[in-house]
Amino acid sequence: MSIIEEIEKYAKENDIPIMQKEGIEFLTNYIKENNIKTILEIGTAIGYSAIKMALGDPKIKVVTIEKDEKMYQEAIKNISDFGLDKRITVIYADALNINIEEKFNMIFIDGAKGQYIKFFEKYQNNLKRKGVIVTDNMNFYGLVKRKDPILSKSLNSLVNKIRDYRNFLEKNPNFTTKFYDVGDGIAISIKK
Ligand code: SAH
Ligand code: MG
Fold first, then answer.
1. Of the CATH numbers 3.90.226.10, 3.40.50.150, 1.20.1290.10, 3.40.50.300, which one belongs to the domain with range 3-191?
2. Rounded to whole angstroms, how far apart are CA atoms 46 and 130?
3. Residues with CB under 6 A from ligand 1
4. What is the CA radius of gyration of the chain?
5. Ligand 1 mean position, distance from CA 152 (Å)
6. Reduced 3-state DSSP string for 24-90
7. Model pLDDT for residues 4-44, shown as the tens digit of each residue
8. How far apart are the CA of 110 and the centre of ligand 2, in A?
9. Among 174, 165, 167, 89, CA closest to 124
10. pLDDT of res. 150
11. pLDDT value at position 68?
């Protein structure tokens, strides 16, 4: 088994919501086609998407933020297994409690789904000119489009937050957003 396959297996066994295969493939292609070299990721988990993005081109640099200590440790280990320590910087912090000065070509939002608007509003300031904000889980496992009621209250509240975020993106005057039905749904918001 390759190291990547081992990470995928670990994620599956431990219920870690890493990007779906078609989703990460779509994202890495987008990064290549648009010559994106600097990426800020919110929500590292075990480093899977950061590693996949960095492997696309030796010039790509990723800064990624993770608030869970166990995830952070696992990410550090996986990134070092790939020898990517110099190109992927993992910050152990809650993304809403820190300030980053650096500006990036791309911000990838993949943290807590209830906080997407907060992540977007805070980190849009870290985008370079013509930068792009990519958001994962826009379909939330098919629940966003479902019309029948969802029984659990907390789940319902999360689904509504994703719906609110989709509206927020559609109405945002500073960005043009397209939604792609790939993986768990990906939004690409290009700064005007
Ligand atoms: N991008 C990863 C998956 C991330 S899963 C991949 O595809 O491989 C979401 C992760 O975001 C979890 O590990 C969770 O701990 C982290 N997270 C959620 N809210 C966060 C926040 N406010 N700041 C930093 N990390 C956060
Ligand atoms: Mg995700």
1. 3.40.50.150
2. 29
3. 17-19, 42-43, 45, 48-49, 65-68, 71, 94-96, 110-112, 115
4. 16
5. 22
6. HHHHHHHHHHCCCCEEEEECCCCCHHHHHHHHCCCCCEEEEEECCHHHHHHHHHHHHHCCCCCCEEE
7. 999 999 999 999 999 999 999 999 999 999 999 999 999 99
8. 5
9. 174
10. 67
11. 98
Centroid of ligand 1 to alpha carbon of 119 (angstroms):
12
| pTM (predicted TM-score) | 0.97
Q: Which token pair is 181?
A: 């039905």
27 phi-psi bin (left φ>0, alpha ψ -120 to 50, beta other): alpha
CA–CA separation, 141 and 138 (whole Å): 8
Measure the CA angle with vertex 100, ends 138 and 128; round to 5°. Answer: 70
Give the closest ligand to the alpha carbon of residue 27: 1
